[in-house]
Amino acid sequence: MAERALQQIAVDEGEWALQACVQSTGSVGGHSGDGCGGVTTARTDTTDKYANTAGETGSAATVYADRIIAQGAFKDVYKGVYTSGSRRGEECVFKKFRPGIRAGSDWFDKEVAGAQRAAGLIDRFNKEGTAPRRVKVRINIPSVRETRSTYTNDTWLVEPLIHNWTKFNSNTGYFKRDAGEVHDVMQALSHFSYHASSGQFVVCDLQGGVYRDGVILSDPIILSRQPESYGGGDLGPKGISTFFSRHRCNRFCMDSWQMPRDTNCYFQQQEGSSLLGNYGIPHKRYLYQLVPMDAFAEEDEDDYSDDDYY
């Protein structure tokens, strides 16, 4: 199938966007996929070279609409390439919601706001010094862009590629047990984010590239006190409770860090992201109806009608 290049999308000069890159093989959003189609890009050795974005704004990029290189639980990932600026010639990715996903029109903007919120908490985590210095944590903050063509109009999240993709946890509390030091650091980061925000937020659904000096995260989810404040993955207070119902403190968690009073489980555990109004997760206005899962038998997803969803 011939590639169909959509219009170039310029990144506004002066825009802040911490950078990353995509795996050669692995998973995105908990689903198997080829992260970058076997492409080897520059700047793949350390997090410093990807996370330091000084002077890297003002680039334009082209997406190839017929080249899906990965599929997450809710997003398709397309290959792109930067066509100007200091990243000219380097691969990037364009992400959009998969067909059939019920998504709010402002969810991408909220996801960017969530990434910015996460960046501040991650910076505090790095400065806290509870994790080994060799495991530096950085985060990619994408740009929201639109394309218009003869075929379709689309809204995308655009960011550089990430290599060595790994899933660390999800917004319903999934994590791999006994998976090693980096995984333990990521679990501690999620716990720390709750403590450092005085119980207002949890940075979770952590995934990204593992490098010899640390990790670059992409597409995190913020759980907050107001559901959907940071996009469809923000499951609100009951999401926070569910996350901690499955969290297990490890060597990098501090005894002094706060925990929520409610650590009941309200959502089924999923390795991939869970979004409001999709796949058995109710619309935010129905979250108040949820009761702890240990208080009833497995609930049939059909108990929610299509009218309950986006």
Key features?
alpha+beta, 6-stranded antiparallel β-sheet, 4 helices, disordered N terminus, 14 strands, disordered C terminus, 310 residues
Describe the structure.
- With 310 residues, the chain is an alpha+beta fold.
- It has 4 helices and 14 strands.
- The strands form 4 sheets. Strands 1-4-5-6-9-8 form a 6-stranded antiparallel sheet, with helices on one face.
- Helix 2 (107-128) crosses helix 3.
- It is globular, with a radius of gyration of 19 Å.
Topology:
Elements: E1 9-10, E2 26-28, E3 31-33, H1 47-51, E4 60-71, E5 75-82, E6 91-97, H2 107-128, E7 136-139, E8 143-148, E9 153-160, E10 165-167, H3 181-196, E11 202-204, E12 207-211, E13 214-217, E14 221-223, H4 236-246
Parallel strand pairs: 7-13
Antiparallel strand pairs: 1-4, 2-3, 4-5, 5-6, 6-9, 8-9, 10-12, 11-14, 12-13
Helix pairs in contact: 2-3
Helix fraction? 10-25%
Gyration radius over CA: 19 Å
Shape: globular
Strand order of the largest sheet: 1-4-5-6-9-8
Distance between the amino and carboxyl termini? 33 Å
- The count of helical stretches stands at 4
Average predicted local confidence, pLDDT: 78
Structure summary, number of beta strands: 14
**Main pleated-sheet profile:** 6 strands, antiparallel
Catalogue the unreliable spans.
1-43, 49-58, 295-310
Task: Spell the H/E element sequence.
Answer: EEEHEEEHEEEEHEEEEH
Please identify the structural class as seen in this structure: alpha+beta
Kindly estimate the percentage of residues that lie in beta strands according to DSSP: 15-25%
